[in-house]
Every structure is written in structure tokens, then in C-alpha cells.
User: What shape does this take?
Amino acid sequence: MQRDDGQPDLYLPPNEMRAVLHKDRVKARVVRYDRKGRPEGRVTEIMERSPHPIIGRLLQEGGVWLVAPEDKRYGQDVLIPKHAIGAARTGQVVVVELTEPPALFGQPVGRVKEVLGEIDDPGMEIEIAVRKYGVPHAFSDEALALARALPDGVRAADRRDRVDLTDVALVTIDGEDARDFDDAVYCESARVGRGKGWRLLVAIADVSAYVETGSAIDIDAYDRATSVYFPRRVIPMLPEKLSNGLCSLNPEVDRLCMVCDMLITAKGQVHAYQFYPAVMHSHARLTYTEVAAILANTRGPQAEQRKPLLPHLLNLHDVYGALLKARSERGAVDFETTETQILCDEAGRIEKIVARTRNDAHRLIEEAMLAANVCSADFIAQSEHHGLFRVHEGPTPEKKELLRNYLKATGVGLSISDNPTPGEFQRIAQATKDRPDAQQIHTMLLRSMQQAIYTPVNSGHFGLAFEAYTHFTSPIRRYPDLLVHRVIKAILSEGRYQLPALPTPGEAHAKLARRLAERVAAPQQRPEKVRKASAEQQAWEAAGLHCSANERRADEASRDVEAWLKCKYMREHLGEEFAGVVSAATGFGIFVTLDAMYVEGLVHITELGGEYFRFDEARQELRGERTGIRYAIGTRVRVQVSRVDLDGRRIDFRLVHEGQELPVRVGRERASEALPKGRKAGKPTKHGAGLSDEPVAPSGKGRAALFSPPASSSSSPLGSLKAAVKKAVAKATRKQGKKPRR
Assistant: This one.
């Protein structure tokens, strides 16, 4: 149970979970502590039942209809009266609304509210995820009607009081699969002061010109707060007429935009900037791949096709070099991470998983957007207007101590101060980039940082080393950017943007609320007039909290779908061997990411070998006490895919040692997976039992003991040996006329 006061989670034993479900709000008291000091609780009051529906598969067992929840955290099946099934059929995925909550001696009862379809239908994983995480996926009738009433293009009246940039060679640079275009760029050489520099224009779609505050479209956009991206599908923040049409900076059409017009020095510093509304005409829709090819060979065929744009692209590359140099001098943290892309066929089946490669075109656009975002934050801060900043704080005291211990244990020779700067992290990364364990060190540096949030309290951006930073460049897909646009427009017109009455954040956002409250309460970070927390300030804090929480929600839903697809993909590779690298070490095992597929799975500690393994928190590694074998981030291993749990979104690997003969598998996993979810052959069980169960190794202080898998398991060499020994002993005792000793 997650506590509101930020203290360690409270463990509730199974008997305490009978009357509650996942996401219920309860009061509980601590009744005891286990030997590791972890609190165990008892529910004293159920304060609020979760309003979220339950998604699962409809099953019939012994004449009883029930739904096994897809989310195993619910832990109980939901009974469905026969009259409440509707048109649903056995095995289909359905959405259930509870009519009776669970009790100590009774299961929850519900009715089928919606039938999603068969589990193997294309896109079913997305349908499940949007409902599982409460992602709004249907626009209101009022919003759709309002979108239909909007014009198809820029009207003459729309051009009034706007700068005409239609003759400026602004271009969009995006990925091949992009459908909405938020930003366009243009760069030319310019004199800045007495030296050389550039004039950089970043034009952003003017969504605020069409989405009025408090309108039906605005209400739906605020509710979503962000677009959600899945493989093969996007749930947009705005109706398609806006996101892919009227607001999108499509090529060869006029569009309304907000422009950040900057003068950049040769050292990559923003010398001056201004904001203004404009009308633009995108001169080309370019891709990252195309621009990278042009920059790599300015006399090649791609460059020849875009010859009129070539000087501007070269200027963009030059200003990128200057901005990158300034980034390095600023000490911004810059870690290269591997992002993956899932490629599916028309039926929704994964064809392959590939790494997204970043080239100079990606980085060029990134630096241009960063410059525009910094100018936006500075503009709002200088005007002393309320707005949302993108805040990224440094590591917490606990994470600082963990990182210091790790750097000391691994002999890096560098550490961080009590009040670390981004430059300290970057220096450590640079000093260790050629070490064999560089990946492990950089991962630990990255994990020591906090997540970024939206808030009206400007605390700077630690990772990027900016004193003030916000999001201005993606108003089509992010609501905070739309708010920033409105604030900038209000400042330009010498007015003040007033937030409408917004709903207060729900209890699901309690954790983020605590973080925000802690920062707001810190007097050294806030001037006296802001600490008074006016009604306007509270409204902006609520908006920031809402946008931050929904950003997390979108990320969780996307990761859930990707995990489901990867599990389904790996079911076709059960029993196969792959090379991989350890991506995390924990007290219960190691996580391994496969080289060829970029899929992560768990090697449980019981699969590491016949000895005790101790988890070294300082070094973040598992070490065998007898052999001294170590498993840490970056360790190369070879594994076999041993089990895939589609319900639990989990893949299990078994470590393969060199020269080891693999056990012959009899298809137990394959046979089990053909059964209804959450069920084993010949034995109906409660949902959450069966395939997802794993042996939990009892652990002493800092030690996890090796457990032998059941002797009946064909995947266990130790189990087979025990069975053979038992058989031999029984045979020998029969020859001697004796009964075998039990």
C-alpha cells in the first residue's frame, strides 16, 4: 500500500486484501515490522472505492461467469451474474463496472459495460492500455462539432497584426512517420555585435489562435494534457482537423505560427530574442535521414534535389555547432541512450525491434528547440507573469549518498559535492567514457537524477544546466506548451493571461502533490510575494500538477503496450539462446537486455548457479560468495528464453554457461499459454496464481538463498538429478527386500 505521507510502502497480507481492490483509498495502521524493518499493516477503514473500471477476460468455470482482471494487482476475479453479461462471449476482453465491492467473505460483483473484442485482435493491447490507465480516447461531441466549424485554411482576417514570413525558407525536419508538424526552422548568417553570428528563427504552430480558453476543445485538451504515442497509433491531444490539418505546419500551405526570433553569437550564446505572431509557408517537409545525408555530402543527389535550401541547412548546422559548444561549456549532462522502435505488420504483429539512431539532424533540431524554450522561460520570468516552467531538480540526499558510495566502491576517483552542479556529472561521464564499465557508471549517474515536472515555481533545469526552462515548441501535443503560448501572447499585448477554473488534482496524483508541496514550502527557493500562494498561484500549481501526472500516465500506458508487444514477440522465441548485457542488478536477480532484439528480461537469482549471491548496494552488483562471480550493469551474458508471462508483461531468462548442455523442453510454457489467462491445466485458480507465480527466495541480511525448482520441472537439471537419484535408491532397496526410507 502506498502511503500519502511519503513513508515506506505498507505491506498488507492476503487476508487484509480480501475486502479491497487496487486503487482503493484506505486507512491502515502498522501492526508489526518484519525482520528487515518493513512495516505490515491492517486496514481500519475503506475511505474511497476506485472509480476506474476493470478490464479482463470473461470466463466460465463450473457454470459461474467471472472476469479475470488483466491487471494482476487487482488480485480477485469479478463475479458476473448471467443477466449482466450482455453480448459478451467466453474468452473476450471486456470492461467491467463493479456493482458490489469485495468483502471479507465475498468476491466483487460487476456487470459488463463494454466488449473490446478477442484477445488476439489487432490493436487490442492499446484498447486495454487506454482503459487500464484511464487515458481519454474519445473527444466530446461538442469538441468535434467545434473542430468541424473551424476553417480549412488561413483566412484573410487571420493575417491581421501578424508578420508575413511566407517568403522566408522555413522548413520542417521530422521523422519519416511524423504526421503532425509543430515546428519549422530557418537560419541565416548575421552580424551579432562586432562579430559573426546567426539569426535563427523557430516557428511554432499557433494552436492558441484556434483553441480558445475554456472552449470544448480546450477542456478535452486539458483533460488529456498530452498526446499518447503507441506503436502504429497515436491518441492526439487535439482533434485530427487541428493536429494533422489546420495547426500542422504542412508543406506548401500557409499556416499561423508563433515565432521565436533569435540572434546567436559565434560562441553559441543567445544575444537577443523577440517573440511575435506570424504567417508562414513551409518550403519543404524534410526528414532527419534526408538532412543528415545532405550535410554529409553537400554535392550528393539529396543535396542536388534541395539545392535552394542548401545554404540555410548549412547555416543551421553551423549554429548547431556553436550551440553544442555552449552546451558543453555550460556543463549540461549529455548521455547517449538507446531508444528503440517497434516495427509491426498490417496485422499488428511485430516484425522486428530496431534501435533509433540519432544523427546530426536530430541534434540540430534539438538544440534549436532548446534555445527557443530557454528564451520562452526567460521572457515569462522577466515579465513576472505566472506560467509553467519545466523544472528538473538535482539528486535527492539519498540518491547523492548512493552515488557517492558507488563511485568510491568502483574506484572512479571523482565524486559529487553536497550541492552538485551538472558539470560535475558531465566531468565524471567524460573521465570514465573509456573504462570497460563506462555504461554502468553512466547509468548510475542518470538514475541518480529526479524526474522533470511542470510547476510555476522556477527552480531551473539541472540536467540541461539552465536557470530557467519551459516548453514552448510542441503545443499540438503538449498542453503546457499551449499555456506558454497564451502567456507570451498576453505579455506581448501588455495584458495578463488568467487560467480558467480548473479541476483539482485527484488522489492518484498524491505523490506528485507531496513533491510539489515540499518544494513550495522551501522559503529559500521562493520570493516572499510568491510564498503567499494566491488563488492564481494555486491555479497554476494545480495545472502543473495535472500536466505532470498525465505525462506520467501517458508514459506508463506507452510502456505497458510496448511490454505487451515484446512479450508476445518473445513467445515465438521460447527456448532460444541470445547474447545480452546486464541492464540492472537487484537483490532478486539481474535484468538482461538482448543485443539483437532490445528486449529486457529477468534472470532470477535462482537461475544464477548453485551458490549464495550477495547484493552489493554500493557497487550495484550481485556477487557469488564461493566463486566471486559478479553480475553488474554492462556484464556480458548469454541467456535462454525460459518463460513469457503475457498477463504480467514479464519475460524470464535462464543463464546459459559456456559448454552447458541445454535441457530439452517439452513445451510446458507453450501449452500453458494456450489456456485462458491466469489458468493452469486441470486446476481452476484465482486470477494472479499459476503462470505468474515465482519462487521468492528468502533472504537474510544482504543475502538471497538459492532455491531448487520443483523436481517435476523439465527445465531443472537439479530436479532431474534428484528424480534419478530417488529412482536409483528405490531400485536398490527393492533388490534388498527393504522399503525405501522416507
Q: What stands out?
A: The chain is about 30% helix and 25% strand. The chain has a mean pLDDT of 83.
